[in-house]
Amino acid sequence: MSILQEEFNDYLTPYKYDAPILAPSGEEGTFDCFGVDNMRICRHNGKFYCFYIGFDGNGYRTAMAVSEDLIHWYKKGVVLDAGSGRPWDNSGRAISSLLCDVDIYGNRELIKYEGKYWMFYHAYPGVGYEIGAAANGLAWTTDENLLEWHCEPEPVFEKDIDGRWDGGGLYSTWIVPHDGKYILYYNGKEKGDWPWHEQVGMAFSDSLHNWERYENNPVLKVTPNHWDSIFSCGQHVLFDSRKNRWVMFYCGFDGHHAQEGAAISYDMKHWEKCPEPIITVGKSGELDSTHAHKPCIIYHDDMLWHFYCSVRPTETEEEKQRFGSEYRCLTVARSKPF
After folding, report:
1. Short-list 37, 121, 128, 23, CA closest to 79
2. Pick from 102, 133, 96, 88: nearest CA to 118
3. Contact in structure between 214 and 185 (CB atoms under 8 Å)
């Protein structure tokens, strides 16, 4: 029997902030000139830290911001820059996930492995917006301010062979520490030429290296003729310690709009989707009228906060000159009114 939609009520965040909490600069030459995207939050040193992506027209870079209330964020600058000199991540590096506590109701503190904090990132070989088949890399730091990161020279996880469901390239990953081992949920596509499908698979490791793919991938597939018929991706997997089950927040795309969804699992391998999006796009003129996607979840002040990337068309000539055809920022919705 399918899980009833009411089972997802704990994960709903119907109250939108309706304003950017992190916005692109619109200033030529800055790392976030044209957009910001893909937020990842942790608690650290008594504050909230977030890592997010900026796009400058050539590639992604990862930056950090700090907050005490989850609304007002103070940018601290780029922590993963472009220009490595290596073919696979020279054009930029985009945050995927942090090794941290994954209990929805937990502290979301970073977890050390071998005395270091760890970040997964994805990188594309070409110059431009997600040009080429991305690979996944690892970065680490011992800096308690989380500003100085060191990237390993080779990818830690790459696309499968041509013809497989993930043989066309990879996107973001999500790391879950579990029973002394690690599970990597990752986003892949079957081919490099549009149109393609993006779906979620999983891989296993005893360390943060040498990943073995699950034989029954993908574990979160697209749903034909539905709101997530083209993409079912952007996975954000957390443990619901109150109901002893796993929940995957993800984004779906039907060829027109990207929206946020959720799925539940009791074994981390078989997932039951909520039938409808849990965050939908807004009306014409609203901040998220084109896309509301790429989830980032944290529990604070007895409520669930759902950060996401919000996209709408640019409206004025000034906006078009500064940002191009779309305005892409980060915003939030939560389970209680603002």
Report:
1. 121
2. 96
3. no
Q: Minimal CA–CA distance to 291: which of 328, 325, 321?
A: 328
Q: Over the stretch 218-277, which tens digit does the pLDDT of each residue have? A: 999 999 999 999 999 999 999 999 999 999 999 999 999 999 999 999 999 999 999 999
Report in angstroms the alpha-carbon separations of 111 from 107, 151, 249, 306, 335: 11, 18, 21, 22, 27
SS (H, E, C) 127-188: CCCCCCCEEEEEEEECCCCCCCCEECCCCCECCCCCCCCCCCEEEEEEEEEECCEEEEEEEE
Its pTM stands at 0.97
Closest CA to 329 of 35, 6, 100, 82: 35
Greatest Cα pair distance in the chain: 54
Question: How many Å apart are CA 178 and CA 268, to the nearest integer?
Answer: 10
Residues 85, 92 contacting (CB under 8 angstroms): no
**CA dist., res. 315 & res. 280, Å (int):** 21
Could you give the strand order of the β-sheet that contains 135-141, starting from the edge strand earlier in sequence?
94-98, 117-123, 135-141, 150-151
Sign of the alpha-carbon torsion through 33, 39, 42, 46: positive
CB 32 within 8 A of CB 25: yes
∠ at Cα 294 (292, 296), nearest 5°?
Answer: 110
**For tokens 């502290």, what's the residue?**
107
Residues 127, 147: contact at Cβ < 8 Å? no
User: Cα separation of 231 and 240, whole Å?
Assistant: 25
Q: 183 pairs with which residues across the strands?
A: 176, 204
Task: Report the C-alpha gap between 39 and 171 in whole angstroms.
Answer: 15
Q: Rg of the chain's alpha carbons, rounded to an integer?
A: 18
> Each residue of 110-160: pLDDT tens digit?
999 999 999 999 999 999 999 999 999 999 999 999 999 999 999 999 999
The CA distance from 268 to 150, in Å, is 31
